From TrEMBL:
Domain of life: Bacteria
Domain GFO/IDH/MocA-like oxidoreductase: 138-254
Family to which this protein belongs: Belongs to the Gfo/Idh/MocA family.
Lineage: Bacteria, Bacillati, Actinomycetota, Actinomycetes, Micromonosporales
Organism: Micromonospora haikouensis
Example of a GO MF term: nucleotide binding
Name of protein: Predicted dehydrogenase
UniProt KW Oxidoreductase keyword: yes
Pfam families referenced in this protein's UniProt entry, alphabetically: GFO_IDH_MocA, GFO_IDH_MocA_C3
PANTHER family: OXIDOREDUCTASES (PTHR22604), TRANS-1,2-DIHYDROBENZENE-1,2-DIOL DEHYDROGENASE (PTHR22604:SF105)
Residue ranges of domain Gfo/Idh/MocA-like oxidoreductase N-terminal in the record: 8-128
Keywords: Oxidoreductase
Length: 351
């Protein structure tokens, strides 16, 4: 445990409306957490000050000033993708635990830098795939493990929502790590790896680049997990909204209809077998709050966080392979790019 009173004191790097609306309430609402510090860019000083007043927290003049505070135990890194590695490393060097927005990094070499920094600092890092903490994912895993649909053969997963051109959204800026793969594609990739519980052996993708943009804005992809097991993915910032996945087994399927259900939306699953379809509904839950609670409880107990860096490195690897495939027009064996660590390559060294 990091504190003598059992309270995890949080600081947030990045004061966007998304974080203010979803993540900050999730932190402040936990009985063993306290949101004590915020920092944003200088042009957002008024927003930081207003949010700090709302949460009875301290607004810091810059990111490093927040990290230097002895009053903070854990950091939520909510910065553009291109800044994740630097500020994770800085937070770890300052002795803080880190919950970082996905993607952890944009190459395996960078992800492994974070892992080494965490080991040196004896602090924990977890990538914020909030959807994993919704009870509907646990229920889907229970149903799969029960054998009701037989052996898992295909994962179909989709995540899409529209980002208009000219909106100024950072997801359209290549310099900030934009593009559909790192923003929305990493989710269906992570779904496939979560349920196959294995590494893909190759990846194939085709991308669309919207006219006037410099990043991929839509994609379809296939991850080959060997032995006839494949994940079929589509993701986009051209169209939507869509957030869905299906686990296809030899004797049936499990469909999760809204994989990224918000806090006021119930989970809904359909199981289809030769006996016909069966619907299940789960109570609405805030998966951001569930994620913060799970991470904080691990810190309080001195336990390992529930989503490991090895798992994150695997997802980075698969996303990197999809990017390489789209660039080359051919399937990319994961092993052939192991350890190269450039912007679209990576390795998977777990399980």
């Amino acid at each position: 445990m990091t504190t003598t009173d059992g309270i995890i004191r949080w600081g947030v790097l990045g004061a966007t409306s998304y974080i203010a609306g979803l993540v900050m309430p999730a932190i402040a609402g936990q009985p063993h957490c306290r949101l004590v510090g915020l920092a944003g860019r200088s042009q957002h000083a008024d927003r930081v000050a207003a949010l700090a007043d709302e949460y009875d927290a301290t607004g810091y003049p810059d990111y490093q000033a927040l990290l230097d505070s002895p009053d903070i135990d854990a950091i939520y890194v909510a910065l553009p993708n291109s800044a994740h590695v630097e500020w994770c490393e800085r937070a770890l060097a300052a002795g803080k635990h880190v919950l970082v927005e996905k993607p952890l990094a944009m190459s395996v070499a960078e992800a492994e830098r974070i892992a080494r920094a965490a080991e040196r600092a004896d602090r924990q890092v977890m990538e914020a795939f909030m959807y994993r903490f919704h009870p509907q994912q646990r229920r889907a895993a229970e149903l799969l493990a029960s054998g009701i649909i037989g052996q898992l053969r295909v994962v179909r997963a989709s995540f899409a929502f529209e980002i208009p051109s000219g909106s100024g959204n950072i997801r359209l800026d290549p310099a900030l790590g934009g593009g559909a793969t790192w923003d929305v594609g990493c989710y269906p990739v992570d779904v496939a790896r979560l349920f196959f519980n294995d590494r893909p052996i190759s990846a194939y993708a085709q991308f669309t680049v919207r006219a006037g943009e410099s990043v991929e804005t839509s994609a379809v992809g296939v991850l080959d997990f060997g032995e006839g097991r494949r994940a079929v993915l589509d993701y986009s910032i051209d169209y939507g909204p869509r957030a869905w996945y299906e686990l296809q087994g030899g004797t049936g399927s499990i469909t999760v209809h809204n994989a990224w259900a918000m806090g006021d939306e119930p989970g809904r699953l359909t199981v289809r077998t030769s006996d016909g379809p069966r619907e299940e509904t789960l109570d609405a839950r805030d998966h951001y709050a569930e994620e913060v609670a799970a991470f904080s409880e691990a810190l309080r107990r001195g336990a390992v966080v529930p989503h490991s860096l090895n798992e994150s490195i695997g997802t980075v690897s698969a996303c990197a392979a999809l990017l390489r495939s789209a660039a080359t027009g051919s399937a990319v064996p994961i092993d052939k790019i192991d350890g190269r660590g450039d912007e679209v390559s990576g390795s998977l060294r777990w399980r």
